[in-house]
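Could you please consider the sequence and fold following this short note?
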Amino acid sequence: MRVSLKDVAERAGVSIKTVSNVVNNYQHVTPAMRARVQEAIDELGYRPNLTARHLRKGRTGIIALALPELGNPYFAELAGAVIDAAAEHDVTVLLDHTRGEREQEILVSQGFRARVIDGLILSPLELEADDLRGRDDDVPLVLLGEREYDLPFDHIAIDNVAAARTAVRHLLGRGRTQIAYLGERTDSANQPAHLRLAGWRAELTAAGLPAPESLVGATGGWDRGDGAEAMARMLDSGVRPDAVFAYNDLVAIGAMRVLHERGLRVPWDVAVVGFDDIAEGRFGAVTLTTISPDKQAIARLAVQSLLRRLEHPEERAGRELTAEYRLLERESTLGRR
């Protein structure tokens, strides 16, 4: 039979209210009393009835996380971080896969699962501000990523322009002057690819160097194959950069493969910097220097923002929350020591 609060109270010799205060981590419980109740909880194997707890608040205890690419290691790692952050609040995460398609992102954002979830964390790629402006769903929404919407939703991001400038500055500091950017996209200017491209241009300009279009490689997507194709196309055109800043680690890894096939050594002939700090970049034949967003902070801010919206539905203004990043220097720019 399921162990109840009453069972724990009888074992500890305290009131049910005291047990409830300990279980809910209320502050006004003495350390001795907390230890006494916790001993009874451990002995009986008591587990809180989270479903009942959430229902008392009129909630399901479930939030949704909608991501564009579950096969992308960055989003997979981010999903794990969100699940861990939500678990600290006894909240379950339902994963959704939008494939980065606008129609699917609209469907998710308009609350087609509103009866199932308490709130939604959405990382959109194609969603436009107008798609959200008329949103009539009262399920709280938190946005991830670098698209700028100027809407009454909390938005969690890193400074992509500054991060890109940090990457390019590192390459300049290694004596590189012909620095390519791989990952240009021709769609919405608010996408992170364009912000990272803007950072690349800004840092080269600040260093008094040109930023010619011949050093910009467009990609149809942001996977390994896209990086390989863009790198091959640039080399085939006769352009020989001495460094590459890639939109993400997957594009960088694809580019490094082509450089190896063409007999160009990383980092001696061409230095490479990626973005995202995925696990794969740490274990290649040449480990990858990368910009590492603080995924745990992004996840924590997203979950906390969503729970705040649930507790304070009267708040209407959106907040811009920024997570930190850092440059991790590895063999693709430093060589082996």
Notes: The chain has a mean pLDDT of 89.
